[in-house]
Amino acid sequence: MKKKIAITMGEPGGIGPEVIVKALINNTVRRCCSPVVIGDADIIREAARKSKLSIRIRIINDLKEVQSGQQTIEVVDIRSPYTFKKNVPSRGAGRAVVKYITKAVELTLNKDVDGMVTAPISKESLSMAGYAWPGHTELLAELTGAKDYAMMFVSRKLRVILCTIHMPLKDVPRKITKHTVLKTIRLAKKGSALLGIKDPEIAVAGLNPHAGESGVMGNEEVRSIVPAIKAAKKVGFDVSGPYPPDVVFHKAYNGAFDMVVCMYHDQGLIPFKMLAFDTGVNMTVGLPIIRTSPDHGTAFDIAWQNRAEPASMIEAIKLAAKMKNSEWL
Fold first, then answer.
1. From CA 53, how far away is CA 70, in angstroms rounded?
2. Taking a C-beta distance cutoff of 8 angstroms, is the pair 165, 151 a contact?
3. What is the pLDDT of residues 160-178, one digit of tens each?
4. Rounded CA gap, 57 and 63, in Å?
5. How many Å apart are CA 123 and CA 136, to the nearest integer?
């Protein structure tokens, strides 16, 4: 029986609605799961028209009604009383996306669906709506009660996981502790298991140039990263490092490692997006549910112009349908 996957509509003024409708006519997507959109049915209809797709939008109230017809997109219709603007962030959009995400989490926790995929949201819209969450990850952690979690990014030839997420770069060094690094190494193994890799080779990147040169260029490696690696090795993890950040991704890309533990957001995301901008997938490890998303943003500059490519959304849906959600979560 095909898995049911909830897909949140994302920022109404961004490319989320467009990449969803384009992804849901894909044969591979329809073969691997039964998708259901959580969002505004009228906006999905408009996105289909704008994308010149002849496809029926069907509102459902009971998840048992979900079918898998390729010419139909099924929507749990959540209308918002707040207005939004196309191609720009807005307060109304920020309020609406939280409703979509909250509903999808509820359905997933209740096992009405097997996992969720989130279309991009605008952090600025969230802020304009008065919310303090800097992004999906923190919102999902709060909604699910997760304490230890991390962002992991998956492509065909590179996988990375982040020790710190959405914070100013100046705040990162004080957040690099033995506890944080060791926790992320553990989550790297859990994330690998979700992908079917049971005994991953995990590399840990240093924070500083040349991985600190034994303290010459910074002491975070000596103080925190090396002790975390040693602790992980003691309990049987296949982990090594810290490696200079300017070489570790090349090694991983060429097959030396299954996963790279990165110290901060852009350290991992710059090489990852250089290699897999259109096909990379973001997944949250440590939640009690399966959650993936495309590895791109709202792209306000090209939204509602029939210019967005659905490749990353397609990959995110396929990955959510493939992932295992038992004891490895």
1. 12
2. yes
3. 999 998 889 999 999 999 9
4. 15
5. 9
Cα 29 from Cα 50, distance rounded (Å): 21
Could you tell me which residues are beta bridge partners of residue 87? none
Domain that holds residue 66: 1-146+297-329
What does pTM read for this prediction?
Answer: 0.91
Instruction: Locate all alpha helices (DSSP H) within the chain, ordered by sequence.
Output: 16-23, 27-32, 41-50, 91-109, 123-128, 136-144, 172-175, 178-194, 220, 226-234, 245-253, 265-276, 311-322
Give 68's pLDDT tier (boundaries 50, 70, 90): low
CATH of the domain at 49: 3.40.718.10
Residue 72 lies in a domain: yes
pLDDT by residue (tens digit) across 104-154?
A: 999 999 999 999 999 999 999 999 999 999 889 999 999 999 999 999 999
Q: Is 278 exposed, middle or buried (0-12, 13-18, 19+ CB in 10 A)?
A: middle
Same domain, 96 and 138: yes
User: Is 114 strand, coil or helix?
Assistant: coil
* C-alpha span between 113 and 42 (Å, rounded): 23
